[in-house]
Every structure is written in C-alpha cells, then in structure tokens.
Amino acid sequence: MRRPHAREENSGVRGLPPLAACALLLLGAAAPVPASAPAPAAPAAFEASQSDPRAISVADLVMQSLGGARAWEATRYIHFAFAVEKAGKRLAYRTHLWDRYQGRLRYENRGKDGKSLVVLLDLTTRHGSAYREGTKLGESTAKPLLEEAYEAWINDTYWLLMPYKMKDPGVHLQYAGEETRGGATYDRVLLSFDAVGLTPKDRYWADINRTTHLMDRWSYILQDDPPQAPPAAWEWKGWRRFGGILLAPEKVAVGKDGVRITHPILEVPSSVPDAAFERPDPLPEHLAP
Fold it and tell me: How far apart are CA 53 and CA 279, in angstroms?
C-alpha cells in the first residue's frame, strides 16, 4: 500500500518494498511505486482553512486521547516490527528503529536466501549503508536495499501512526457523518490530500469512537484501485500505552478471515545508543526500560 502523504519526518510517499509486495497484494494493496520517482514538495503546515471545523475538532480529540501533542513531540525513538499474517502463516516480517529527531533509521529484514539484512539510513538524504550477514555491501548492491528500507519505513509507520498524522501538512479533513456499529457510535473523518507524494488521490476514512476518541477502524481507496472498488477496511485493536503515547499493536482486515498486521516488537525507548544507528551489531531484544 502507498501513503500519499509527507511531513517533517520525510515520509513522502507510502511505498512498498519488493520483498513485501506479494504479501500486501494478498491484502488488496496496490503495486509499489518505484522509489526513484520524484515526489512533489509538501506544504509547510496543516491548513485549517482547507478542512471542515468539525472534522478538525474530532482530530484534536483523537490527539488528546492518544496522549496529546506534547507527548507525541517528546517521543523521539520508536522501535517496532511489522508482520503480515494470513491464516496463521507469516508472509512478511521486518523491524524499524527510528530516531524521529535526527531522521535516522535502522531497518532489519531477511532476504529470500534467509540471510540477515541491516540498513542504516539517513531519512533526509536517503543515504546510508547496507549489511548482509554483517558484511558491508558495495554502493551499487546497497542502493536498492536503501530504497527498500525507505519505502518500508514510509508504509509501516503509517500503519502504526496514522492517527497522529491527521493534521499533517497537505491533509484535508472532512466530517463524513456518524455510524453506529457494535453498540458504539463513530464519527467518520475523510482524509484527502494536496499534491503531496506520488498518490495524492488516495482517500482514507477514520472511524473515531465517540466515547474513547480512538480510531477503531480505517478504510481506504487507493488512486490505483479499479473504478468503483469498495474501500478496504481494517480494525485497529488493542490500544495501550507505550512510553507517553497510545499505540494499537494489531490491525485485522474486515471480511478477510485470518488476515492481519501485527507489531510483535513495539516499544518507545527513552534512549538508544548512537551505535544502533551506526553499526550493524545485533540489538538487544528490548530497548525500552
């Protein structure tokens, strides 16, 4: 899947690395966009005048329930795994250690040959280094792996953090009515986008629980979906506190039995050694205190 959206963390376009494309295609996602394609510049700030005031109020309540803007701004490090499962079988698994303040990423995956891959990437310049089984790779071999890491980070952080990004630059919010489901009432907010990223015609609907002010479901139609395609819907489950913020460790596809995305590693460390972003040495299993 591809996110149409950019902000100060350089999350320009929601891409999908080739290793994971087959997995998310099973989930109804579109094909990946080549990382080499240029992305338009993002607006500098969220433009409230271009959004529905009621939708903005709902988004503000969401941020408060997640821990508040101050807690989000104080969150420097996020360490998480992104796993795709179908009928109990794992189709994709990769990890990210992200320094939001300095734009540093440590990305880990395994190739088709089962060998370990570590990418140390500067998210601003997209320069970095790649290591297979601890051995540094040459520039030409590393380049597609750097692109893979960047695209995976774009995709996976949106699956983890979308409710924090409802008022990012280039986002337009529209109140899309209320819905009652399973005894709960939801305020629906439609997210559309300026000429931001490579897929600005993507649309997302966030179903916000009127009692908890948390997003219990999102639905989306991607710009490359067939005409008249119905939205794909996912439940966001298990909201709980990590550090100073709330995160949902599980997303379950609606109407597709056994398809889910989980975050088997999910933590918000208060500190991370610089070496984690500079050397491919193995990390401890848990970084958070």
Answer: 47
